[in-house]
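Fresh eyes needed here. Kindly weigh in on this sequence plus structure tokens:
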Amino acid sequence: MGLEHDEWNRAPAPVAEEYTELLDAVYNFSLGTPASRQKRLKKAQINAARRESMMVNFLREIGVVPGGSFGYALVNLEQPLPFFKTDKAAVIMSVDVEALELSPHSISEIGLAFLDLEKVKDMAAAPGAKGESWWEHIVSWHVRVREYSGLRNFKYVHGCPDDFDFG
């Protein structure tokens, strides 16, 4: 049980210092060893680089960035997309699966979203910030598994199955 704000202000300095040291020790223990922290950081960096690479490859494939580009910061989505390939027939599909945090980690929700590039090819002049002018062309479904509809995640993420937004 922690100290309330008023109690903290009245706590003698040695007690407050000991309590702070205890909290620091618990926090540092939760981070793991320096080696495990370094390993997690390296893995996160590799995963981020892979996601970046997949995104750039995807954007290059549909023509949002030029073929020789190593990044996608070159494109201002408020301006025309000079490399947009209107001859490509593609549907972008996004799948978002939510599993329960607690065992047996059953799937509780599935979100699906589709964007047919054929429907936005004439809008390539200005997709807008975050592609907002394309949002109306996204078709989405949110499926909740009835058996788990009363359960929500809370331990690692705040579950919000009633706030589906595209998938």
Observations:
- The mean pLDDT is 75.
